[in-house]
Structure formats: C-alpha cells, structure tokens
Amino acid sequence: MKNVIEIENLTKYYGKARGIVDVSFSVAEGEIFGFIGPNGAGKSTTIRILLNLIYPTSGGARVFGRDCVKDGYEIRRDVGYLPSEVFYYDDMKVLELLKYSASFYGRVDMQRLRYLAEVMELDLGRKIDDLSYGNKKKVGIVQGLLHRPSLIILDEPTGGLDPLMQQRFFGLIREENRRGATVLFSSHILPEVQKLCSRVGIIREGKMLRVEEIGSMRDTAYKKIRLEFREEVPEAPELPEGAGDVQRSPRELAFLFRGDINEAFKSIARFDLRNAVIEEPDLEEIFLHYYGGEDGV
C-alpha cells in the first residue's frame, strides 16, 4: 500500500524558538492516522508545513508523492483541511461562503452541500457574524469535505461541538474514509483518537516519541497494579524494575508495570497486603506514562 503522507526529518524553528525537530512518520493510503500531543507539542506546525502555509527549516515532506514546498498548490486542490481556529468573512451568509469556497475546486455540488449541512444541522441562511463558535466549526467541516478530498487533515476538529455533533462529525469522517479518503487526525483528546484511528503518532516538545498501532498501546505487557496494605505504605517502597507512574496514599499504592508479573509480586511479597488488583490501563494513562520519562517510556 502506498503512502499518502511521507515526512522525513522535518524541522522548523521560528527564529530561535523551537517548532518541531527531526519529525518523521508516514500515513498510508486509506488510513485514519492519529497525531497526538498536548497543545504546543508541534502538531499544527507539522500540518502547516504539509499544506505549504509555512516553510520548513530543514527536512522534507511529501503528499501524494509531491513535494510540499514545490507543489503546494497542486496538493491543496485535493486536500480537505479543518484548522483548529476558523475565520471567515463575517458579512457573508453561510450558503454564499460555501459556494464561494466550492468554486475554487470547480463546479458547486449543491446536493452534497445540502447533505453535509443537514447532517451537521447547519443553517445555510444565517450570516457568519451571527454564528456561535460551534456553528462556525460546522461551516469549516462542511467546507473541508465539500469537494470530496482524497486527504482530510483535521487539526483539533471538535472544539465547540456538542457531543451529538461530535458523533455526527465522526460519522462523516468514517463515511469519507470508507469512500477511500485518507485522514490525518490531530488532537490532544485521547478518546477521540481511540474511536477513529488505527495508528497513532505521539509528539512531545516538537519531537516524535513513537508511532504504533492503537491496540499495542493497550498491550497486555502493560498492567496497572493497585495494592492495598494493612499498614501504612513506606515512604519509598522498593518496587520492581519496570514500574512507573507511582501513586500513593497512606495505605494504597498504584503503578504501571511492564514486564514479568511474577517479578512484580516477588518485590512486594514482604508487605502485608489487604488486597491487590491487576487491570488494563486506559489509553490516557499509557499516554501520560510516555510523557512522564525523559525518553518517553
């Protein structure tokens, strides 16, 4: 399967300020790829380089096999982009704005325009200036999907949408993906990524930590161990190698563990336990675990 997005050693500095450093990953055709990290991690910088809205300091990026700097215009014609913040001509009506946007891609498909607006419950007759932030986000969603793009790039797309509209939006993205569209889904909200994506790239402070399957992030190699003691927990109990993210209260201890579970219990067998619980950590706990160490593990 060919790659729609290929990023290699991409670096961007804003003067002396760090944007991203040596970012590399690829997105396969037909994939929904999650790009996650906290605000300021470098997600939007990476996306803006892909769209040729800013130039990289070094490294390279290709979309549809084309160079993002040299072929930005051709690339953008087949990309649907929803930025984290949307800004429009306030005096225009929604329908006028969408027709104007669609005209850049050729013929305006009114049937598709009205279908997308109906799904997102968007009033086409209202002026942009009268819309709430959430309704402006709906305009951005319709605008981004109107021309049936082969690549959909979403940067924090659900801000301002209520839970019902979020589900409708996810439904549209799945529908476009079944049609064959590739999706790059950038977010700091982990449950969203988990619902939609097959693989995920994790970025921190401008550097990629890793790229892996969503399922492997919840691999059985990771366990969450909760211990309840009959007496107070020592200030610094000796824990097994592979333990991290330790949380303690006077009579309880919890930590993430990766390794041989037998070794874990050998190290705590000397304590008088009231109870022990072993469970699968959720995606957010694993994500925070990656961010906790200097090396991201």
TrEMBL record:
Keywords: ATP-binding, Nucleotide-binding, Transport. SMART domains: AAA. PROSITE patterns: ABC_TRANSPORTER_1, ABC_TRANSPORTER_2. GO terms for molecular function: ATP binding; ATP hydrolysis activity. Residues 5-230 form the ABC transporter domain. It comes from the Bacteria. Belongs to the ABC transporter superfamily. This is ABC-2 type transport system ATP-binding protein. It comes from Papillibacter cinnamivorans DSM 12816.
